[in-house]
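Recap from last week: sequence in, structure out.
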Amino acid sequence: MRLLPKEIETFWTLLTAPVIWAMHFLACYVGAAIFCAKPQLFGGNFASLRLAIAIVTVLALSSITLSAFLAWRQWGFGAHDPPHDDPTRHDRLLFQGFATLLLSGLSFVAVVMTALPALFVSGCLR
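Predicted structure tokens:
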């Protein structure tokens, strides 16, 4: 029995990384908005918000990296060059793996860019 399946033939794997990015985006920006509106709920320390964003970012990046690895494995570790446009099950799996790998890369960069303001901003404007 395998811990990670070799191939998952479902459309939802294509959307895994963008959904993780969207949830990360919401967690960071909604969390910051609530913190700046009501700082007494979290103790008023901006470092705690930065730490929470860092933890959420590490979790999101590790999940996206796992998704990218599974997509890379489904693509055959890059052994087959695109385009995968033949009407066969094999080409469909290769296309899905390649597209998921590209979306994982884009989502990885988006998560990093979403978390960058927490690195540079030192407090809320009142």
